Automatic annotation (TrEMBL):
Residues where ATP binds: 47-54
Record protein name field: DNA segregation ATPase FtsK/SpoIIIE, S-DNA-T family
InterPro entries xrefs: FtsK/SpoIIIE/SftA, FtsK_dom, P-loop_NTPase
Keywords: ATP-binding, Coiled coil, Nucleotide-binding
SUPFAM superfamilies: P-loop containing nucleoside triphosphate hydrolases (SSF52540)
FtsK domain location: 20-211
Signal peptide residue numbers: none
Domain of life: Bacteria
Pfam families reported in the protein's UniProt record: FtsK_SpoIIIE (PF01580)
Transmembrane segments: none
Stretches of the chain forming a coiled coil according to its record: 97-124
Keyword flag Transmembrane helix: no
């Protein structure tokens, strides 16, 4: 595990993105690009199995991987969903609740340290001029950590820390990206869902599961992920804080695209002094 300082300004600049740049997710139904500001925000992606959540998630992870100013923390309950990115992850946790908890606690402690430091210098949030990485914590599949693996105590502890990171992490440079194929109230309680500034609902089987992702009442107003046809893979409703849901389609990265991006990301991250664990 590494929580490095970001690359020194006097090193040779290398190509790459920044987490302060918009993240490209795909295209809205009217042809406009979907580019979201993920810094100081969190994102929840959910939908029934096979609806396109992993493809959508890969766009976010790709952006993080291509950012020398991001420390990439990947929690992959299935081991294989995010496995292609493993070489560029600073932290990779597979289906191991104990390791997951250890890492989550470390991240929570780091967040608290950052807040202490911000407090000391009388500031509210970290910015792109701070010599510190933004942590992108990606959790896929949420339900495996919160209700399937480990003891009830461990699951509750996981959810408690996750909620704290989602609630307080943003200003300290911790972005949470959470994904699940189980859009039900026990996996995405309202109190957790409401902390996510961005919510992406891929196809759901019921109106109520669509509402569990996007927020109560949207389905009855016509923004309903249960109306997405099964063959429309990658289609979703995106809700951005304070807005109304918009229908979009994820950009698709093939495995071959991802291999290429991983090679490139490795180059960027190591030449910038950012070496993955
Ligand atoms: N944006 C897209 N464009 C084209 N095809 C897509 C897109 N998104 C998904 N698909 C197709 O749908 C398949 C399933 O997508 P994906 O693996 O992302 O589903 P999922 O919701 O993550 O499933 P699970 O929850 O079971 O992991 C992909 O293998 C791909 O063939």
């Amino acid at each position: 595990m590494k929580l490095r300082k970001k690359r020194e300004p006097d090193t040779v600049p290398v190509a790459g993105l920044s987490i302060y740049d918009p993240v490209h997710l795909g295209m809205f139904a009217d042809g406009e690009g979907v580019n979201i500001e993920l810094i100081y925000r969190n994102i929840l992606m959910a939908g029934e199995p096979g609806a396109g959540k992993s493809v959508g998630l890969n766009n976010v992870v790709a952006h993080g991987a291509l950012c020398p100013d991001v420390s990439l923390w990947l929690f992959d309950g299935k081991q294989v969903e995010l496995g292609l990115w493993r070489e560029v992850a600073d932290v990779f946790v597979g289906p191991d609740i104990e390791l997951a908890l250890q890492r989550m606690e470390a991240l929570q402690a780091e967040m608290d340290r950052r807040y202490d430091e911000l407090d000391r210098v009388r500031r509210r949030k970290i910015t792109h001029t701070d010599p510190i990485d933004v942590v992108m914590l990606v959790v896929d599949e949420l339900a495996l950590f919160s209700v399937t693996m480990g003891s009830k105590d461990q699951q509750e502890q996981f959810v408690r820390i996750l909620r704290d990171l989602v609630a307080r992490g943003r200003a300290a440079g911790v972005i949470v990206v959470a994904a699940t194929q189980r859009p039900s109230a026990d996996i995405i309680p309202t109190s957790l869902r409401d902390l996510f500034g961005y919510r992406v609902a891929y196809r759901c089987t019921t109106d109520s599961s669509s509402d569990i992702i996007l927020g109560r009442g949207w389905a009855s107003q016509g923004y309903n992920a249960a109306t997405i046809a099964p063959e429309e893979r990658g289609v979703a409703y995106l809700l951005a804080e304070g807005g109304i849901p918009r229908r979009m389609k994820s950009a698709m990265l093939t495995d071959a695209d991802i291999y290429g991006l991983v090679d490139y990301a490795q180059h960027i991250r190591t030449s910038g002094g950012h070496s993955a664990a």
